[in-house]
Fold:
Amino acid sequence: MLAFVIVAVFIAGLMIGRTPEYLGKKIESYEMKMASLMVLIPVVAVLLGTAIAVLVPAGKSAVANPGSHGFSEILYAFSSASNNNGSAFAGLATNNMFYNIALGLAMLFGRYWLMIPALAISGSLVRKKQSRLQ
Structure:
């Protein structure tokens, strides 16, 4: 949620022509880069995992319903693993070595790697002096 607030504050600051500030601290390029990473990491985990699962024979062999529904089963499995609760559609046999490792990596990257940019943003904001409101 912090990343979306920082991106929204930055865009609002650009639209009104002022230096963006959040809680009296200036939002600069470093905070925007880290916020962008926080937004993009789960997206990359979902899309890259889905692309690999569609290309590898082990990923395609677990799909019981080939075609567009099978693709949506794979996409939902990676979306849910990296963003939500880790569930999958019933037509996808995810209890095999490929999906256990791939979905585990999607969980690792999509959920836990968000802590690094979040801590970088908070550390950067803590070091800044609070600007005076007039």
